[in-house]
Amino acid sequence: MQTIGVPTIEPGTIARRLVDLAEDKQAHEIVLLDIRSQSTIADYFVICSADSDRQIKAIIDHIDLKVQQEFGLNPRIEGTADTGWIVLDYGDIVVHIFSPTQRDYYRLERLWDQSPPVVVVQ
């Protein structure tokens, strides 16, 4: 929904910014998938890995703060760092932050393999 007089920011622009923000906190194996042709639940998935609960928490806090400051968006957050999988849901964009073990187990990129990667950061 667009507010009168407030410019709409494209989800792709925000998704690319989310990749940068995850990278700021040393997330690795970052993938931005365009899932528009595969799903109606979101336009983009950002998937990344972190090596510890503490790093997962740092990534979440950084993304949450910066996206609020820059775009005025607040995510719905599911999961906890100690489970190894946190989801930040911004509506059109869903961010998945995994421990390596959980990422290997769920293999979201494989589930969405028909969706083209927009950005891949090793």
From TrEMBL:
<keyword id="KW-0678">Repressor</keyword>
<keyword id="KW-0963">Cytoplasm</keyword>
<dbReference type="InterPro" id="IPR043519">
    <property type="entry name" value="NT_sf"/>
</dbReference>
<dbReference type="GO" id="GO:0090071">
    <property type="term" value="P:negative regulation of ribosome biogenesis"/>
</dbReference>
<keyword id="KW-0810">Translation regulation</keyword>
<comment type="subunit">
    <text>Interacts with ribosomal protein uL14 (rplN).</text>
</comment>
<comment type="similarity">
    <text>Belongs to the Iojap/RsfS family.</text>
</comment>
<dbReference type="GO" id="GO:0005737">
    <property type="term" value="C:cytoplasm"/>
</dbReference>
<dbReference type="GO" id="GO:0042256">
    <property type="term" value="P:cytosolic ribosome assembly"/>
</dbReference>
<dbReference type="GO" id="GO:0017148">
    <property type="term" value="P:negative regulation of translation"/>
</dbReference>
<comment type="function">
    <text>Functions as a ribosomal silencing factor. Interacts with ribosomal protein uL14 (rplN), blocking formation of intersubunit bridge B8. Prevents association of the 30S and 50S ribosomal subunits and the formation of functional ribosomes, thus repressing translation.</text>
</comment>
<dbReference type="InterPro" id="IPR004394">
    <property type="entry name" value="Iojap/RsfS/C7orf30"/>
</dbReference>
<dbReference type="Pfam" id="PF02410">
    <property type="entry name" value="RsfS"/>
</dbReference>
<protein>
    <recommendedName>
        <fullName>Ribosomal silencing factor RsfS</fullName>
    </recommendedName>
</protein>
<dbReference type="GO" id="GO:0043023">
    <property type="term" value="F:ribosomal large subunit binding"/>
</dbReference>
